[in-house]
Design brief:
Blueprint (H helix, E strand, L loop, with lengths): L1 H15 L1 H26 L2 H4 L13 H7 L1 H4 L4 H4 L5 H21 L1 H13 L1 H7 L2 H8 L1 H10 L11 H4 L4 H5 L20 H6 L4 H4 L23 H8 L9 E2 L8 E2 L1 H5 L46 H4 L3
Antiparallel strand pairs: 1-2
Length: 320
C-alpha cells in the first residue's frame, strides 16, 4: 500500500506541475548524457590507456610511451583518433570494443594481454585490424576527407569528440605542411615513389608498408628508404602477384632511340632483388647509362654483352 501511495503522489505531482516535471526530466536526461560524454572523453585519453599500457619501452604495453615520442603526439593525434574510423558511429563502436579489452585485461590477466599484443606487434595483418586505415586517409588526403565528411556523421550537434573530428582538408594539409598522399609525390630524397593512390585503391593497408609508424619509439617512422631491407615486403608482394601487377616499361634514354626495358618480361625470369636496388635504383629516372658503360659490368651489361648470357644486339633494346 505504501508503494502504491508513493506512485500516486508521483503521478499527481507530474499532472499538477507538467512544466516543472518536464524541466526535471530534461535535466536528468541531460545530466546522464553529459556524464556519459565526459566518461567517453576521459576513457579516450592516453592517460587512461596508460593505466594498462604502462611500459616505458617499445613493444607490448609500451604503446602509450612510444606514442608520446612520436610526431602524432606532438600534433595531438591520440589513441581514438587512429584506433577508430572517422564519424560518431565508428567512435562509439571503438568504445564498445574497448570495453571488451578492459574485460580481457581484468579477467584474463596481464600475461594474456601481453601475448595478444606481442602477436599484433609482429603481424601487420593483425595491426590492420586494430587501427583504422580510414583515419590515415581522412588526415592525409583531401579526397577521402571530403568523401567521409559527406557519407558519415562526424560531429553530433556540433560537438567534437576528438582531434580527428576537427580536421578538414586541404586546409589541414597546408597548415601542417604535409603532402596529399593521393595526389602528391613523396619528397625527392626517397629512393622510390610508392604511388600511394594505386596501392590504396588496390586495397593495400597502410601498415603493410608503414610498420611501426606510431609505436616504433621514433619521432618520425616512414617506410624504410632502403627497399631491400627487412622482409623485402615490396618485392614479396610484387613477385607473388606478378601476373596481376602490370609494371610499365621503362625508357632508359629520352633522345634518339631509347632503350626500352620490359618489366613484364624480366619479372618472369628474375626475382626483383636480382636488379634492385644493386644494379638499378627503384625510383624511375635516377639511373643513367653512358655509351662507355656498354663495355662495363654495370646496369644492363652485367647480363647483356659479348660472351655473356643475354643478347647484345642493339636492336633488342633500342627499338624505333
Amino acid at each position: 500500500m505504501e508503494k502504491k501511495g508513493k506512485s500516486s503522489a508521483t503521478f499527481k505531482f507530474l499532472r499538477e506541475r507538467p512544466l516543472l516535471s518536464l524541466a526535471i526530466g530534461t535535466g536528468i536526461v541531460a545530466g546522464f548524457v553529459f556524464l556519459n560524454v565526459q566518461a567517453m572523453h576521459y576513457t579516450s585519453k592516453p592517460q587512461f590507456c596508460a593505466r594498462c599500457h604502462n611500459a616505458k619501452t617499445p613493444g607490448p604495453l609500451g604503446e602509450v610511451h612510444t606514442w608520446s615520442l612520436n610526431i602524432h603526439a606532438k600534433h595531438n593525434i591520440s589513441c581514438l583518433d587512429c584506433h577508430s574510423g572517422p564519424g560518431i558511429f565508428s567512435y562509439l563502436k571503438a568504445k564498445i570494443k574497448g570495453l571488451g579489452d578492459v574485460y580481457s585485461f581484468v579477467f584474463r590477466g596481464k600475461d594474456h594481454m601481453i601475448q595478444k599484443l606481442d602477436q599484433i606487434h609482429k603481424d601487420p595483418t593483425l595491426q590492420a585490424k586494430v587501427y583504422s586505415m580510414d583515419s590515415c586517409l581522412f588526415c592525409h588526403s583531401t579526397e577521402y576527407n571530403e568523401k567521409f565528411r559527406k557519407e558519415r556523421v562526424i560531429t553530433l550537434a556540433g560537438l567534437s569528440f576528438r582531434t580527428l573530428d576537427k580536421i578538414k582538408n586541404p586546409e589541414y594539409l597546408k597548415v601542417k605542411n604535409m603532402i596529399d598522399i593521393m595526389s602528391d609525390q613523396v619528397k625527392d630524397n626517397y629512393e622510390v615513389n610508392p604511388k600511394h593512390s594505386i596501392h590504396i585503391k588496390a586495397g593495400i593497408n597502410c601498415v603493410i608498408c608503414h610498420r611501426g609508424v606510431v609505436h616504433s619509439g621514433e619521432e618520425i617512422k616512414l617506410v624504410s628508404k632502403s627497399i631491400n631491407e627487412g622482409e623485402n615486403m615490396c618485392f614479396k608482394c610484387h613477385m607473388e602477384n606478378r601476373d596481376k601487377i602490370k609494371m610499365s616499361d621503362i625508357n632508359i634514354a629520352k633522345a634518339g632511340y631509347p632503350a626500352k626495358f620490359s618489366h613484364q618480361l624480366h619479372s618472369q625470369i628474375f626475382e626483383c632483388q636480382t636488379c634492385h636496388p644493386g644494379l638499378f635504383k627503384m625510383k624511375a629516372g635516377t639511373t643513367t647509362i653512358s655509351f662507355a658503360d656498354h663495355s662495363k659490368d654495370v646496369a644492363c651489361f652485367v647480363c647483356h654483352g659479348e660472351k655473356k648470357s643475354a643478347n647484345f644486339n642493339c636492336q633488342s633494346c633500342h627499338q624505333q
